[in-house]
């Protein structure tokens, strides 16, 4: 039995790249995904296919009703998903309050249960949509909390390390990395609007398309007519 890694797997480009990175490192893969009543819930089908592609040991799917909290265009149908702005620096309405804090907490418990020493998350502070829970400061704070919160760390001396391999990469560099590692991007989705074809105009689509263009690659997923 080798070392184990838990990977936050949304079904998008970044989390798929994290799966590829963890696989290349030789870890046994334990992805975790979330049905948080997001409007783009087709990403869960993508996550399942990615997990199957990598022969994950176990794929845990957690249901947590974040639309009860509301306040985000991703969980509240009354808030429209805005068209993308690749240069955005403010916090957009697609921010889901405390989402990464909640997801990482579940993932930390999962990692402790399966005995994983590594916890991967695809946060990025170069090309991102202004989310505060994608910043290095947040990850450092969560790592400190994880070190104090688990029996693995406090009683057994086994820290669970939060791995952020994409933290300082541009979207183009992420695509290049994933392509080099054979990440199955054709199985992913990034569109916030959740259609069978990506809209091509929301924040996530704009950043994704820019990344593929920077990497000199063609995005293998389908887009609405007239996009690209």
Automatic annotation (TrEMBL):
Known pathway: Purine metabolism; 7-cyano-7-deazaguanine biosynthesis
Any one GO biological process: tRNA queuosine(34) biosynthetic process
EC number: 6.3.4.20
InterPro entries on file: QueC (IPR018317), Rossmann-like_a/b/a_fold (IPR014729)
Enzyme class: ligase
A single MF term (Gene Ontology): ATP binding
Positions in coiled-coil regions: none
Cofactor binding, note field: Binds 1 zinc ion per subunit.
Residues bound to Zn(2+): 191, 199, 202, 205
Chemical reaction(s) catalysed: 7-carboxy-7-carbaguanine + NH4(+) + 2 ATP = 7-cyano-7-carbaguanine + 2 AMP + 2 diphosphate + 2 H(+)
Sorted UniProt keywords: ATP-binding, Hydrolase, Ligase, Metal-binding, Nucleotide-binding, Queuosine biosynthesis, Zinc
Required cofactor(s): Zn(2+)
Residues noted as binding ATP in the record, renumbered to the chain: 9-19
Superkingdom of source: Bacteria
Function description: Catalyzes the ATP-dependent conversion of 7-carboxy-7-deazaguanine (CDG) to 7-cyano-7-deazaguanine (preQ(0)).
Family: Belongs to the QueC family.
Summary of subunit composition and partner proteins: Homodimer.
Name by which UniProt lists this protein: 7-cyano-7-deazaguanine synthase
Source organism (scientific name): Centipeda periodontii DSM 2778
Gene that this polypeptide is encoded by: exsB
């Amino acid at each position: 039995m080798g070392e184990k890694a838990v990977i936050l797997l949304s079904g998008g480009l970044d989390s798929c790249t994290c799966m590829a990175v963890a696989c290349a490192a030789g870890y046994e893969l334990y992805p975790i995904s979330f049905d948080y009543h997001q409007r783009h819930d087709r990403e869960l089908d993508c996550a399942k296919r990615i997990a199957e592609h990598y022969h994950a040991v176990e794929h845990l799917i957690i249901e947590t009703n974040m639309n009860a909290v509301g306040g985000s265009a991703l969980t509240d149908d009354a808030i429209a998903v805005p068209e993308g702005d690749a240069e955005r620096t403010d916090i957009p309405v697609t921010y889901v309050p405390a989402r990464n804090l909640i997801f990482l907490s579940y993932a930390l418990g999962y990692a402790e249960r399966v005995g994983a020493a590594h916890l991967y998350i695809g946060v990025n502070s170069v090309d991102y949509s202004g989310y505060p829970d994608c910043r290095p400061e947040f990850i450092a704070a969560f790592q400190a909390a994880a070190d104090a919160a688990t029996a693995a760390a406090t009683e057994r001396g086994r820290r669970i390390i939060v791995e952020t391999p994409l933290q300082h990469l541009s979207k183009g560099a992420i695509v290049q990395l994933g392509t080099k590692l054979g990440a199955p991007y054709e199985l992913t989705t990034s569109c916030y609007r959740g259609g069978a074809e990506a809209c091509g105009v929301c924040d996530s689509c704009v950043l994704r398309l820019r990344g593929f263009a920077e990497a000199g690659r063609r995005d293998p997923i389908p887009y609405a007519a007239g996009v690209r």
